[in-house]
Please model this.
Amino acid sequence: MAERKGGLGRGLDALIPQAEMAGEPAVGFARIPLDEIKPNPSQPRTNFDEASLGDLAASIKEVGVLQPVLVRAREDGFELVAGERRWRAARIAGLTDIPAVIRDEDEEQWHNLTEALIENVQREQLGPLEQAAAFSQLMEDFGWTHEEVGKRVAKSRSTITNTLRLLQLPAAIQGMVERGELSGGHAKALVSIEDQVYAEHIAKRAAGEGWSVRMVEEAARARVEGGAGTSPTPRETVPRPAELISLEEKLAEKLDATVKINFNGKTGKVVLNFKGLEELERIYRTMFGG
Model:
């Protein structure tokens, strides 16, 4: 149904530039054994919610670690700078190593790495979960807000917020998105369903029966408005050509907006839904640049 994209899923080193420093640990990406990484002793956070860690571990088992941890080299291994939740959850998930960005103490070199990472996040064709993970990483590692991430990657705050919500999806649904069984549009529609069991039921039906994004949106809306007794089967009274649905979904993903294509066989129109001038300006920049 959805074409699997490259990016973080095919190797975080594709996004993080490798510094070539002879004889020195490179500032960049590496897979590091979990046992070689030690928590930061000055980390103010000492208590981690076990249920939350369990959920993250389940997600890691399903789709892998989508966000690298941030470490600095020490004589006896590596010390965590950011990402202790991921490191702990990876251990619970049974992993032996974890993707990591190795931070150099040279602040200028670190600034260059940060800017390169942002540039690559903007340029690479990331899958929806990979993009959400990248935004989350920027927030956690650099302490940025949704608005600050948006400014850095040239997206609206609402886009950042809505994309990050994908990380709240159950692990099973994240796995379906990662495998390309569901598109980013399907995933965003499923986020609105609070009942995770019901959301997984809809996701499986959507993937198995070839539901369009609009059909998933209708099922989700019916659940929200009608409650638990609502039938999960959306209605499409007039079958729409598969090519039209595919184009609609591709446009929606490219523009990160709700798109509706109306076509009567001879003429048609494309309808873009947006919330506020800020989002309209973002859509314009996506379409025409500048």
User: Anything to note?
Assistant: The longest strand covers residues 97-103. Strands lie at 28-33, 37-38, 69-74, 77-82, 97-103, 258-263, 268-273. The longest helix spans residues 107-123.
